[in-house]
Amino acid sequence: MTLEDGLVLLGFVALSGLVATSGILFKPGPWYVGLRKPGWTPPNLAFPIVWSILYLLIAVSGWLVWRAAGWPAGAFTLFGIQMVLNFLWSWLFFGLRKPLWALADIGLLVLAVAATAFAFAPYSRTAAGLLLPYLAWVCVAFGLNFSVWRLNRDRGVFA
Question: So where does this one cross the membrane (predicted)?
Fold first, then answer.
C-alpha cells in the first residue's frame, strides 16, 4: 500500500466517521425509550456494534472502488447520496421526532445503498459485496422504523 492509498483510505474512514456523528448528535433518549416497539427490536447494544462495523465496511468499499477506478462520477455520486441520507435519518427520527419523515428517508436510503452496490460492482465485486450487510441492516431498520411509526401513530405525536 502506498502513502496515497493509506491517505485515501483514511479519508474514507473519516467520511464514515463524520456520517456516524449523526447518531452521536441525535441520540434515542427518553422519548424513544417510551415508544412502543415490535418484539423483534434488536437490543440497544446491537446498534453501536453493528453500525461501527458497517461504517468500516462502507469506508473500505469506497476505497476499493477508488483503488480500482479512481473517482467514477456516477458510482461516487450514489455513494455520496447514500451517505447524506444515512446522516439525515438520525436527525429526522431522533432530532425532529418525525418517524414518518425518517421512514421516507430510510426508504430512499435502501434504494441508494442498493444502487451504490450495483454501481460499484463493475469496478470491484468485493466493494459491492461489502455493501450487502449494510443493505440488509438498513432493510431491517426500515422495518423497525415502519413498525415504530405504526405502533405509535395513535399517540398523536407523529407526522
Answer: 7-26, 46-66, 73-94, 100-121, 128-149
Range of the domain at 56: 3-155
Q: How far apart are CA 69 and CA 127, in angstroms?
A: 12
DSSP string spanning 26-49?
S--HHHHHTS---TTPPPTTHHHH
Domain harbouring 37, CATH code: 1.20.1260.100
Bin 72: left if φ > 0, else alpha if -120 < ψ < 50, else beta.
beta
pLDDT 10s digits, 45-57? 999 999 999 999 9
Q: Cell for 122?
A: 463493475
User: Rounded to an integer, what distance in angstroms lies between the CA atom of residue 85 and that of residue 72?
Assistant: 20
Mean per-residue pLDDT of the chain: 95
Cβ count near 137 (within 10 Å): 18
Asked if residue 91 lies in contact with residue 26, where contact means CB atoms within 8 angstroms, the answer is yes
